[in-house]
Amino acid sequence: xxxxxxxxxxxxxxxxxxxxxxxxxxxxxxxxxxxxxxxxxxxxxxxxxxxxxxxxxxxxxxxxxxxxxxxxxxxxxxxxxxxxxxxxxxxxxxxxxxxxxxxxxxxxxxxxxxxxxxxxxxxxxxxxxxxxxxxxxxxxxxxxxxxxxxxxxxxxxxxxxxxxxxxxxxxxxxxxxxxxxxxxxxxxxxxxxxxxxxxxxxxxxxxxxxxxxxxxxxxxxxxxxxxxxxxxxxxxxxxxxxxxxxxxxxxxxxxxxxxxxxxxxxxxxxxxxxxxxxxxxxxxxxxxxxxxxxxxxxxxxxxxxxxxxxxxxxxxxxxxxxxxxxxxxxxxxxxxxxxxxxxxxxxxxxxxxxxxxxxxxxxxxxxxxxxxxxxxxxxxxxxxxxxxxxxxxxxxxxxxxxx
Length: 403
What we know:
The protein has a seven-stranded mixed beta sheet with strand order 1-2-3-4-5-16-6. The chain has three domains: 3-108, Aminopeptidase (3-Layer(aba) Sandwich); 133-294, Aminopeptidase; 301-390, 2-Layer Sandwich (Nonspecific Lipid-transfer Protein, Chain A), CATH 3.30.1050.10. The protein has twelve helices and 21 strands. The protein is an alpha+beta fold.
């Protein structure tokens, strides 16, 4: 019999991360365990045990997630895995049941995650909520359409000194960007700026550059270098982990900096938003080799709590019939708009699964696009287009890190 329960010790946490590490072909490393202890409370990790052995786990980080118009408490789902010896026994479903019930009990109306496989989470009510872009740019074709503003000063900082300088820049961006979350001091030290050898792959040490414009520190870039040469010709790569600024000029300056690093032939980056300014900053956009994949997935654990935090166009509302087989408390007709959110006996304009609400929640997808993909049912002509006007969002969602 497989028992699902909360993790109660560091030893159990180590056992709990063993299933996910199995799929990376390795045993857990101490650096990862120690980092998790700082940012993942034991009572947020469920483990599946059989005869004293841990065969699966699911955890969730406590996040404050930015949504259009505000922030909401959210569960950042992580370390979800069941050993291949115990597949097809309903263990994952039980772990998801326990996790979502715990989210509801804690008052976290939203859960979100990066999916290792895109067929897993829809059945638990998650909807694809964003797209994520990669670039692979040859440095000799990295000319910008307009000249970048020259920084007053650019400084390379030791990682131990970086948090104080770059955390305010990140927070400035995160407050305005759906999909990003607030970073605690422990998160900065244990995750973002941690640089154990196992995280580097074939690349070098993590570097941090801070750029000052007229107003002071305004942008930063975290990156790694992989130098290589072919018959004396540089073939190395700059791998950008994060580069952002507090203004368009600052963001442009940060990317100009990384594109101008000598001895390197290419600049690569991943986890960029689909509306990243690089596409229009670049004089030759196709040289970016801008490619897309699925980004974060969102689950509305509590429809009322989640949608009440989001902003909407003034003077408009739409009635949505929500179908949620896994969290039945969300079922029903909901009037959604700037005047508030409430259950209603009124006829619905749209009928959809809760996963569709996850897809539109951060502004990553529109009701019209989901209607055209046959993911929802319009009960009134033009309802999807009208709902788009209600749910309008200024920018595409962006989550700059996999957790």
